[in-house]
C-alpha cells in the first residue's frame, strides 16, 4: 500500500507540472517563432534505508518541438522567416548571446535593430546592429542588412551589417527562462555560422503549437490527475479499514 500511495502521489505531482507546460504552450500559440515545450515522466527508485518499495514519478524536460511553424506572408521588409535549423543571434538581458526564430524585426528611434521582444539583433562580430536614418531597408537572404540613405537614390545603397545567423540542431539548444535558446552544453564549441540562404523576407514563422492538440492533452492530464487522487483516497480508506480490523482483532 505504501508503494501505491507513493507512486500515485508523485504521479499526481508530475501531472500538475505537465499541465503547467501545456498551459505555457497554449499561452504562446500566437507568439512568432515559438517552439512548443515538451514534457514527460520517468520512474526513479528512491534510495535509502528501509524496504525498497518507493518509486518516484519524476517530470523530465525532453526539450522542445523543433518542427517549423506555419508561414505567414506579410510583405514587410523586416519580417523574416528562418530556414530549418537556423537561429538568429540576439543580445540577452545579461548582455550575453542567445538565439531566437522570431523574425519580426523593427528599428528603434535611436536606430537599433531589435526583435519584437526588444532584443538587439547581433552582427557577425557579436555587436548590436545600428541602422542609420534611411528611406528604405533591405535584408538579403544571407542576413545582410542594406539601406538607401534618406534623400538618396537607389545607386547609393550601402551595407550596414550582416545579422549573425547560426546553424544548430534541436539537440544543441535549450530554452532559458526568458524564452530564448542557448547551447545546451556550455562547454561545447561555438555554434557554426549558417552559410548560403538562411531566411526569407516578407514572411513570418508562426508558433508550432497545435492548439487543439494541446487542449486535448490538457484534458488527458486532468483526468490522469483525478485518477491518481482517487488512488490516494482509496489507499487511505483501505489503511483506515486495516487499522480498524487490527484494533478489533486485538
Automatic annotation (TrEMBL):
Cell compartments where the protein resides = Bacterial flagellum basal body
UniProt keyword Isomerase, yes or no = no
* Sequence ranges assigned to domain Flagellar hook protein FlgE/F/G-like D1 in this UniProt record: 87-146
User: Record's superkingdom?
Assistant: Bacteria
Q: What is its main location?
A: other
Which Pfam families would you find in this protein's record?
Answer: Flg_bb_rod, Flg_bbr_C, LlgE_F_G_D1
Matching entries from InterPro entries are given as:
Flag_bb_rod_N, Flagellar_FlgE/F/G, Flg_bb/hook_C_dom, FlgE/F/G-like, LlgE_F_G-like_D1
Identify the residues that the record assigns to the Flagellar basal-body/hook protein C-terminal domain, covering every copy: 202-245
Q: Which residues form the Flagellar basal body rod protein N-terminal domain?
A: 5-35
Keyword field: Bacterial flagellum, Cell projection, Cilium, Flagellum
* Xref: PANTHER family: FLAGELLAR BASAL-BODY ROD PROTEIN FLGF, FLAGELLAR PROTEIN
Subunit structure, interactors included? The basal body constitutes a major portion of the flagellar organelle and consists of five rings (E,L,P,S, and M) mounted on a central rod. The rod consists of about 26 subunits of FlgG in the distal portion, and FlgB, FlgC and FlgF are thought to build up the proximal portion of the rod with about 6 subunits each.
Q: What is this protein called?
A: Flagellar basal-body rod protein FlgF
Source organism: Pseudoxanthomonas mexicana
